[in-house]
Each structure stands twice: as structure tokens, then as C-alpha cells.
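A reminder from the course coordinator: this example appears on the midterm review sheet, so study it carefully.

Given structure:
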């Protein structure tokens, strides 16, 4: 008899809920997006959906109607009635018995959650601490894959040091990005961040921060930094969908600036929020 066991319960395999056979569970075989709203308005949904479509194509999940996904997101958001919300959704290749290869006719699974976002004002005013960790992720980080084990282990290692985020460093000794964020440095009047390559996620928030910098006549330089350059920067900050811009006040135990969020970072926070209105 083919069977399954969930914790202490044994049941026939043909009675098992298909959710337990999801290839996302077995292999991380799927892609995801996280979108947020500001005061009842979803921010940059079209850009997130475009990236979602690129991620789906990147792992060969086909025949997903992005227009239908957009409708699902909006319908769920309107039902939830949460003004400042985190909207998470993913698509996996589907459910099937565990085999490495897949049947081209398998039906993709869709999943979504909407939860409250806390107020990050205090975090922005105080700033966070970060530590470097080796970048052990796969080589196609432009795909927003469900397989985030390397990111999670890096974040956990940073947390063990009392830090809020891990900053990933590649084999060449250069910073790529955070375990769940994009990384920026202010050097003089210039804004520095790694260029978009295969090992960098094309962050939607990153793009808007660059627009904000251009609006403020801040030079944007897309060039990778070393940890030593980051330690000696005038200001550092991270960007992430749910928190937008978060100042960094300590990098690998080195104090940045005067241990307070810097003036250019503050100006960028103000300018960025104009896009959300």
C-alpha cells in the first residue's frame, strides 16, 4: 500500500491533500512576489507583476495569465480592507508525486496572503545594524525563486551576531545585496549600488530609489562595493518592498557616519514617499 505520514498520522497516499505534494514544498519549484500598500493604495503593482512574469518564464512555468493574477491580488486586497498591507503571492509548478522532472501538463498552484504591516517610522529614525556573510545563492538571483535557504541561513547568522540583516559578499569580495534587500552607499554626493547582473534581484524599490536620487540631483553610480568601501561610506541604507528605505548605522561593528541616519538618506526617504501617493 502506498501511504503517507503527517507527523504521527498514517494515511493512504490517495487520501493525501494535494497541498502536501506541491513541488514548491519538495523543491522550492516556484516563484513569488511581495507587494505592499500605502494607506489603501497598492504600490507599483504593475512593475511587480512584470517581474513575476519574468520569473515564471525563467523557470519555464507557462500559460499563467498575469491579468488574472492581477485581478486575484486586487480582489483579495479589497476584501482584506487593510490600509497598510503586505501582499505575498506565489505560483508553484503544481502538485505531483515526487520526481525531479515534471509533467508538462501539470497545473500550477497559486497561493496568496495579506497581512498587516507594522509602522516602521521608529526603525527609519533609529537605523539598523548589518553584518557580512558569504553569498552562497544560486547564479540566477534575478529569478525571485521560492528556494531561499541560502538567504535564510545568512540572515540567521547575522541575527546570531545581533544584526538586523545580512549583507552578501561574493567570491570576488564584492557586495551583491542583502539577504532580503538591496544595498546602497552614499559616498560624498554620489549614490552607489551594485549593477543589475544575474546575481542581483531587480528590486522594484531599488528602481524607485534611483528615480528619487535623480529627482534630488544625486549622481547614481552602479558599481559594486567592497566591504571596506562600505565601512568608509558617509551613509548606508537598504531598500526592501515592505519597509522601502531603511538607514544602516553599523556595518560589521563599524559605526557609519555619526551612528545616526544621514541627511541624504533622510531626503531620499521623503522623496521616495512622493511616489506612493
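Designed residues:
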Amino acid at each position: 500500500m502506498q501511504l503517507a505520514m503527517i507527523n504521527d498520522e498514517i494515511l493512504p497516499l490517495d487520501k493525501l491533500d494535494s497541498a502536501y505534494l506541491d513541488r514548491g514544498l519538495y523543491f522550492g519549484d516556484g516563484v513569488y512576489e511581495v507587494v505592499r500598500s500605502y494607506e489603501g493604495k497598492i504600490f507599483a503593482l504593475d512593475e511587480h507583476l512584470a517581474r513575476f512574469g519574468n520569473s515564471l518564464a525563467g523557470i519555464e512555468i507557462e500559460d499563467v495569465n498575469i491579468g488574472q493574477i492581477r485581478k486575484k491580488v486586487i480582489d483579495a486586497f479589497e476584501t482584506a480592507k487593510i490600509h497598510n498591507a503586505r501582499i505575498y503571492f506565489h505560483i508553484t509548478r503544481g502538485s505531483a508525486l515526487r520526481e525531479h522532472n515534471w509533467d508538462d501538463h501539470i497545473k500550477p498552484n497559486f497561493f496568496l496572503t495579506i497581512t498587516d504591516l507594522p509602522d516602521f517610522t521608529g526603525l527609519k529614525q533609529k537605523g539598523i545594524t548589518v553584518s557580512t556573510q558569504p553569498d552562497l545563492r544560486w547564479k540566477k538571483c534575478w529569478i525571485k525563486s521560492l528556494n531561499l535557504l541560502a538567504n535564510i541561513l545568512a540572515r540567521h547568522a547575522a541575527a546570531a551576531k545581533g544584526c538586523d540583516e545580512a549583507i552578501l559578499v561574493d567570491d570576488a569580495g564584492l557586495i551583491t545585496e542583502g539577504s532580503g534587500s538591496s544595498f546602497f552607499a552614499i559616498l560624498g554626493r554620489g549614490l552607489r549600488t551594485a549593477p543589475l547582473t544575474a546575481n542581483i534581484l531587480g528590486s522594484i524599490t531599488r528602481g524607485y530609489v534611483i528615480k528619487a536620487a535623480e529627482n534630488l540631483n544625486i549622481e547614481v553610480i552602479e558599481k559594486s562595493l567592497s566591504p571596506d568601501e562600505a565601512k568608509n561610506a558617509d551613509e548606508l541604507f537598504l531598500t526592501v518592498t515592505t519597509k522601502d528605505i531603511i538607514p544602516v548605522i553599523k556595518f560589521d561593528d563599524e559605526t557609519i557616519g555619526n551612528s545616526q541616519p544621514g541627511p541624504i538618506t533622510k531626503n531620499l526617504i521623503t522623496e521616495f514617499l512622493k511616489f506612493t501617493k
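The mean pLDDT is 97. Residues 120 and 183 are 18 Å apart (CA to CA).
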